[in-house]
Amino acid sequence: MMRRIIISFWVLCLPSLLIAAADEPEVLTLTPDELAKYEFEVEEEEPATVTPLNMGQEYILSSQRQLVKDLMARRLGILRISQTESDLKILQSLIDKNVISQSDIRSWQALGVVFGDILVKQHQLQWVSYEDEYGANKALQWKDTENFVFPVTLFSKRVQFKEDIVMTELYQELSQIIEGFKTYEQRLKLP
After folding, report:
1. pLDDT tens across 118-136, in order?
2. What is the per-residue DSSP string for 174-190?
3. What is the DSSP string of 101-126?
4. Which candidate among 139, 155, 189, 190 keeps its CA 20 to 30 Å from the CA of 72?
């Protein structure tokens, strides 16, 4: 009986599959000479829109910072952070003590905001709203350049893909990248 149902399904779908296949473009075969002269169609990428954070986005960042501060106070007894590299040990303690459950994306992203604040203070970056074809995100920008870092989802994505989080390593890696694009921008300005 099960076999008849499957066969009937394919018999019903076959005409539409044949029509769909007929509508597909034919595969283009080129000789090496034709390939060398072929002009590929390149889709122009729409530039991202970068704007200062609006009041709502500022409020969201503030509430995320407060969430992390509350976790640190309740679970670690720490009441202040300094937005320096010394805070990385505190943030690592939150991770090592499993204070944040893997499914708590909001808290992981809040941790990304606090981590981003360290990058802001140590590397003279600024929080901005970055919107492209994929949506709007809060990002860190260096001066008025096209150089961005996206710390908000830094940890939530690593948790999602079951990657280890070592704060000092991530900080050093991002610091090298940031210093690299600062150096690149400096070279562009030289005569």
Report:
1. 999 999 999 999 999 889 9
2. HHHHHHHHHHHHHHHH-
3. -TT-HHHHHHHHHHHHHHHHHHHTEE
4. 139
